[in-house]
Specification:
It is built from six helices and no strands. The chain has one domain. By secondary structure, the protein is mostly helical. It is globular, with a radius of gyration of 21 Å.
Length: about 180
């Protein structure tokens, strides 16, 4: 009997989540039409904005912007680690040593772009203005394809640098 009750409860919760997600999608669609926002699939694929549907909020646009800013902040911290590798894992030093001049320039350009976004997002935290939130979302989404391509180039350079370092046959503290 307990098993059936648990299954009913699980089914009920799943049904509620599904309904909430549908509500989220409809709410986004209304805002998308009103402000000409990017496609929900694009924002969700790149910034996981469906994570905010459970929380719900009257400040829906702000929650979307904050979700996007979270990814930008995470990327910014990773770029800082590459630019100023104090107290980073040893493998980061080895990867950085393998970077070409264009890899380093890519890091600098990404860092510059992410800091611009971070500063703009900081300014949006103080006073809520839905139109400015929308402008930020559209700006980031509009530039994200190019940013994503640059991040992928950086990832490939890191992966290549790590492979090169792994193949070295030099004496070290452990060799």
């Amino acid at each position: 009997m307990e098993e059936k009750d648990k299954n009913r409860k699980d089914l009920k919760e799943h049904s509620k989540e599904h309904t909430d997600l549908q509500k989220f999608r409809k709410e986004y669609q209304l805002l998308q039409e009103k402000y000409k926002l990017p496609e929900l699939k694009f924002l969700n694929d790149n910034f996981e904005i469906e994570n905010i549907f459970v929380e719900g909020s009257e400040l829906f646009i702000k929650r979307i912007r904050k979700q996007m800013t979270e990814k930008i902040s995470s990327g910014l911290r990773a770029l800082e680690m590459l630019m100023n590798p104090q107290n980073t894992p040893v493998f980061i030093f080895n990867i950085i040593k393998s970077f070409s001049a264009s890899d380093k320039e890519n890091v600098r350009e990404l860092y510059k772009k992410f800091t611009e976004f971070e500063i703009e997002a900081f300014g949006l935290e103080n006073l809520y203005d839905e139109k400015k939130e929308v402008e930020f979302i559209k700006k980031v989404a509009g530039e994200w394809k190019e940013i994503s391509e640059s991040l992928n180039k950086l990832y490939q350079a890191m992966k290549s640098g790590h492979k090169q370092d792994s193949k070295k046959d030099e004496k070290s503290y452990f060799g």
